[in-house]
Amino acid sequence: MTDFDAIVVGSGMSGGWSAKELCERGLKVLVLERGPEIKPDRDYVDQLPPWEEKNLDRIAQEEIDKHYFKQYPGVAYAVKESNKHFWVKDDDHPYETVEGTDYDWLRGYHTAGRSIMWSRQSYRMGPQDFTANKDEGVAVDWPVRYDEIKPWYDYVEEFAGVAGNLDGLEQLPDGVYQPGFELTDAEKLFKTKVESSFPGRNVIQARVAHLTNPTDEQRELGRTNCQARNRCHFGCAFKAYFSSLHATLPAAERTGNMTLVHNAIVQSLEYDPEQNRLTGVRIVDAETNEHRFYSSRLVFLNASPIASAMILLQSKSETFPNGLANTSDQVGRNLMDHISGAGANGLIHGFENQKIFGRRPGGIYIPRYANITEKDKPYSRGFGYQGGASPLGNAGGQIPGIGREFKEAHKSPGPWRISIGAFGEQLPNPNNRVTLHPNKTDKWNNPIALFNVSYGENEHIMLQEANKDAAAMLEAAGCTNINSNTVNLTVPGNRIHEMGSARMGNDPDTSVLNRWCQAHDVPNLFVTDGSFMTSAACQNPSISYMAFTARACDHAMKLMQENII
Amino acid sequence: MKTRREILQGLIVSIGGSSLLTACDGFAKIAPTVDGELRFYSSEEIELVTKISDLIIPRTDTPGASDVNVSGFLDGLMAEWANAETRENHHRDIKRIGGQLGDSFRELDEQDAKNKLANLDTRAYAADRPDEYSAYRSLKGLITQAYFASEEGRLLEQQWVAVPGRWNPRVEI
Questions:
Q1: C-beta separation of B165 from A227 below 8 A
Q2: Is A437 left (phi over 0), alpha (psi -120 to 50) or beta?
Q3: pLDDT bucket at A101, cuts 50 / 70 / 90
Q4: Cα–Cα dist A112/A17, whole Å
């Protein structure tokens, strides 16, 4: 008899889904969260008006140097004085990089993890993304094709709530959407100009995990429409954007089957070689340093690709001297992110008599066209652009003039500016990896992460081309004052789309997980955070983690019912 | 040493603001520094910053910079947020701006001071944005950010709505 039917490690984007799906199928589920509890009523700061923000909501510079020296530079647009409790203190949670490399490990340790701080862009992977490795002879083939995962995308989108438009693009399949956020007229002009000047390129509404027409189930969970406040990085009292805290964890909670334990840092998964099964999970309490063991029939790792890989690497045994479920030696390897640092902005004309009302959560998206509708590229794979057009305003004070006229000028919406920035695909590379530091540990005596990740030639060439393309599209739209970045690739990890550290594949010798996100080596272990990704595609990945998690839970339940696990 | 409030009370009169010192009771809207000793600026510095901020954002049919305590806010910002390097740079910036405006600036009446500052502003925002005026541009940015972060600046001037409730991509002006 075990303490629980299943243990879910991590309460974030995918862990919430594991909890929901397994609880709703009747399992008694323990969810282990390494950080403290977040209570929206107490911890959200989305309703704080600007004039009550301390110091323009800037974290004190000395505090940044002491506590947020990686988090703040990595994601300064989101890490503020009022919400800094959503982000880890770097001195409490150190990591290192191999000399000559850099890595941004940007994290939130608390209930729902980074699902309360994400940017909510939600795009399906397309058919081409599941065949690219095979077609190009890169890494290993995905053991799944789009048609197999499509119904699971439908399922998770319906529950999560995604606002978007049906655009009919094969490479970026449509989903189950609530009404999208209409483009501004400037964006519509840009769309017309780009699509006529560059046949095969499209400009569409961003697809974002926000409610615009909630279902009955979403309302039952206390969620309601997006209020167009753009306060999402501070939480959402309306629960309008998807997060584990707003949606999946409450859904699990209401079954009566979930036990959620905070401050539980998983140190290892315990393995029984005779049964070839996991028996449970060992944790250390972050507050008391107490060590505990919880037993279960099934374990879902949803700690995030880096933490999940580290837990596996820490779980050594006679059977698995290099880490649990690591006979392929692929755990911790093939670590991917998306790449940015290319794009353009400029003024777009003809809309001086318009302004906007409300602050929507997403603007435009230009789906990948490289090596899909345009085959003449000096690189493989491709990128999408995110961006938007809106009045520039005069805030910030950097316009000429003083006095009444200067003050009045701030009431004007100012010229309209459009900007687009690329998110490109990073190729899998087994040398890009996270390992356990050989001799450094954190304050709980767990090895710290050691990163060795760098970009290859394809990423560099791709972003150079993305920069040129961005400027060309703005020129085609008649923009002026075009600024095209000097390409400056983002630091690996900076897009916070960690992927690939326990990839899925058909061959146990070259992959960690099978087509169900189930460990080849250990049948009652599933890893359904971004670790499973065999390649990165270029779309924001969270909705894919959700779909694969729901599918894996369904499969695990069937195996349990058949007493296979 | 004069308190910030005492200095501001004098300044509001000196640059032509009607007394309206009751407005000072609402000072603290955005200010870490309220009544009490200055924490960062010298009395000469805050005198200059206050005068500049009220010329950049004067009281009109809505409150001006002093009414929402912009200079006091910046005093608190430098004391609480800035590190030693930023503080040193800001002191240097104020000194430089003072030098560019001339020693007589503090004594000039409102119109003459306005002309003097407008002249500096014109030079600072010339097409090539000369480096020698970066200190002024930086201060102007801080003053403007502080003002529009205030309740009055955000609500009365920018018509900010806390909960729009909907998205409208097209509002004709």
A1: yes
A2: beta
A3: very high
A4: 11
Name residue A418's beta-bridge partners.
Answer: A346, A389
> Yes or no: is domain A168-206+338-425+456-491 CATH 2.30.30?
no
Structure-token match 């197999």, residue found: A148
Share of chain A above pLDDT 90, in %: 97
- CA-CA distance, A289 to A498, in Å (whole number)? 29
Per-window interface: A 210-269 vs B, CB < 8 A: 225, 227-229
Going by pLDDT thresholds of 50, 70 and 90, the confidence category of residue B13 is very low
Minimum CA–CA partner of B161 in chain A: A358
Query: Domains of chain A: which residue ranges?
Result: 1-163+214-336+429-454+497-565, 168-206+338-425+456-491
CATH number of the A1-163+214-336+429-454+497-565 domain: 3.50.50.60
Q: Using CB atoms within 10 A of its CB, is residue A230 exposed (0-12), middle (13-18) or buried (19+)?
A: middle
| 8 Å CB contact of B150 and A182 | no
Nearest to B170 among A61, A184, A404 (CB): A184
Average pLDDT over residues B111-126: 97
CB hemisphere CA count around A350 (13 angstroms): 12
Q: pLDDT digit string (tens) for A165-180?
A: 999 999 999 999 999 9
Nearest residue to A170 (alpha-carbon basis) of A378, A379, A369, A375: A369
Predicted confidence (pLDDT) at residue B7 exceeds the cutoff of 70: no
Q: Average pLDDT in the A512-533 region?
A: 98
Q: How far is CA A420 from CA A315, A330, A471, A540, B135, in A?
A: 44, 35, 9, 15, 31
Q: Tell me, what's the ipTM?
A: 0.92
User: Best mutation site among A53, A56, A351 for testing chain B: the one with the most B CBs within 10 Å?
Assistant: A56
Kindly list the domain boundaries of chain B, sorted by start residue: 4-157
Structural tokens at position A313: 């690497």
